[in-house]
Amino acid sequence: MMKKILVYLLCLLILITPLSPPLVSHASPMIGFEHVASIWGSEDQPREVYPGSSNVRLIILVQYTGNVTLVNTIGILSLPEGFTSSDGSVQPASQGTVEKNNTATSSVSPGDIIRYEYLVDISGDLTEGVYTGILTI
């Protein structure tokens, strides 16, 4: 009986695995995604940010290079030390959106540019420089 259950579980895992979204490793480039731009402010009016800036919009644009349509992608942002989400969350999450026919949608087709948006506070104790965060999709 135990062997039969184990076989069923193994078959279930084999059936579920191809349906799962790809996992993104922090140590390697994003599989199926390519970073396009990171913008403070807005795409129309980018701005510079400084130590002590608060509640500033960070937009991350990523191109989807996979070959199947995705729905409801979520981007979880791991911020570097000295940066915090304006809403207090440790790892802020953003629903990915794609602009199609002047409408934002959560359906992502191959080649689409996905937009992730966050509000960030920057510690006044930091020095000016380049800081790197990690986006997990």
Name the helicity range.
Answer: 10-25%
Quick one: overall form?
elongated
Protein structure class? mainly beta
Identify the strand order in the major beta sheet: 1-2-10-5
- Largest β-sheet summary: 4 strands, antiparallel
Given as residue ranges, the uncertain stretches (5+ residues, pLDDT < 50) are 1-28
Mean pLDDT: 80
Cα gyration radius (Å): 19 Å
Strand content: 35-45%
User: How many beta strands in the DSSP annotation?
Assistant: 11
Compute the number of helices: 1
SSE order, as H and E?
A: HEEEEEEEEEEE
Distance between the termini: 40 Å
Gist?
The chain has one helix and eleven strands. The protein is mostly beta strands and 137 residues long.
Written account of the structure:
By secondary structure, the protein is mainly beta. The chain is built from one helix and eleven strands. Strand 7 and strand 8 (103-105) form a beta hairpin. Residues 1-28 have low confidence and may be disordered.
